[in-house]
Write a structure and sequence with these properties.
Layout lengths: L8 H18 L17 H8 L5 H15 L18 E2 L5 E4 L6 H13 L8 H12 L7 E8 L5 E10 L4 E9 L8 H19 L7 E7 L3 H8 L4 E2 L17 E7 L7 E2 H15 L9 H10 L4 E2 L3 H9 L10 E3 L1
Parallel strand pairs: 5-6
Antiparallel strand pairs: 1-2, 2-3, 3-4, 4-5, 5-11, 6-8, 7-8, 9-10
Length: about 350
């Protein structure tokens, strides 16, 4: 037992560092079990604590329940929500909960769009009308087998302290994280990590509903100098793909450099055939960003031209070197993380 009852914020930050060190020292998440037989405490804070650990999503699932099922021969299967009607709510603290927005007409939806508008320049995000269209299509159950998810961390008064949005790309059985934004009131609490974990959980559910065994991977885009990127590359959590990636709004002569990363889930290959990378890019432009004709874009054609010269795409040696040198990864992760 780490402590009794709910965690205080400062102590929780300290213990996260300590437990991350323990997990790293163990070297193998299959050796660790989450102990839940402690009836004098509410386990919600401890489950939330595990979900904030700096390890892959599938490793968290191993610690929380998969290893126990294997060791004791319980034969448990992947937990699937009993119903897909309405939002799944996940308690994140006594004050906040993460809810999924499925109606663009609600006050929480409006406050979430306000946060996105304050966090991203207009050219870096969907228009508000596009967001509302995505939510309306979700409300009308028009999106399957694709899906759009917009999550918000709200308090009891309906104020929004953080949000995350992403798309399930059925054609390539992958998730794509579009946006993560945390308001000043939620920074330093691990809220961004919780929102992202919840997006991945929903992508995995989409994958099962589409008839796949599990989600292949999660894609996302981030600036090359983002400290979050450097930290996860150093830890082996994500693979920065080795080609010049362009955000749909960026010109081919843009000085802003983005990286398309791939977080393995069920598909743990480190090199990907170029044909699959092209399909993923098309899905991201066409479905996630709603670019009507991607091939008409000069930046999209530039990516295809570069990829077309190779048989496979692996990790970017440049980004790996930057991450190991620490030149792109000093300091805390910024409050706004595109993708």
């Amino acid at each position: 037992g780490l402590t009794l009852g709910e965690f205080e914020e400062r102590f929780e930050r300290f213990m996260l560092e300590e437990v991350n060190d323990v997990v790293a020292y163990a070297g193998d998440p299959t050796k660790l079990l989450f102990g839940s037989d402690w009836p004098i405490s509410d386990m919600r804070s401890y489950i939330r604590f595990v979900r904030q650990l700096d390890i892959r999503e599938d490793e968290k699932e191993m610690i929380l329940w998969r290893n126990t099922s294997r060791v004791f021969g319980l034969g448990l299967e992947e937990p699937v929500p009993a119903s897909d009607d309405g939002p799944i709510e996940v308690q994140t603290s006594d004050a906040l909960e993460i809810v999924e927005i499925d109606d663009e007409r609600t006050p929480v939806a409006a406050r979430t769009l306000d946060l996105l508008g304050a966090s991203f320049h207009a050219h870096e995000r969907h228009s508000f009308e596009d967001f509302k269209s995505e939510l309306a299509e979700k409300r009308l159950d028009l999106l399957k087998p694709f899906d759009f998810h917009m999550l918000s961390a709200v308090d009891r008064d309906g104020n929004v302290h953080g949000t995350g949005a992403g798309v399930y790309l059925a054609g390539v059985n992958a998730g794509f994280v579009l946006y993560l934004a945390v308001a000043e009131t939620g920074r330093g609490s691990g809220l961004g990590h919780l929102l992202r974990d919840e997006l991945v959980r929903r992508f995995r559910r989409n994958s099962r509903e589409a008839g796949f065994g599990d989600l292949h991977c999660v894609f996302g885009e981030v600036r090359i100098d983002n400290p979050w990127l450097a930290r996860l590359v150093r830890d082996g959590k994500i693979l920065p793909l080795d080609f010049r990636y362009f955000h749909p709004a960026a010109g081919v002569d843009s000085v802003d450099r983005y990286v398309l990363y791939r977080e393995p889930i069920a598909d743990r290959r480190e090199t990907i055939p170029c044909a699959e990378v092209k399909q993923a890019l098309y899905s991201i432009f066409r479905r996630a960003y709603r670019v009507r004709y991607p091939y008409e874009r000069e930046n999209f054609r530039a990516m295809l031209d570069e990829i077309g010269t190779r048989a496979e795409i692996g990790p970017s040696a440049e980004v790996m070197a930057l991450a190991q040198a620490g030149t792109a990864g000093n300091g805390p992760c910024p409050p706004v993380v595109p993708g």
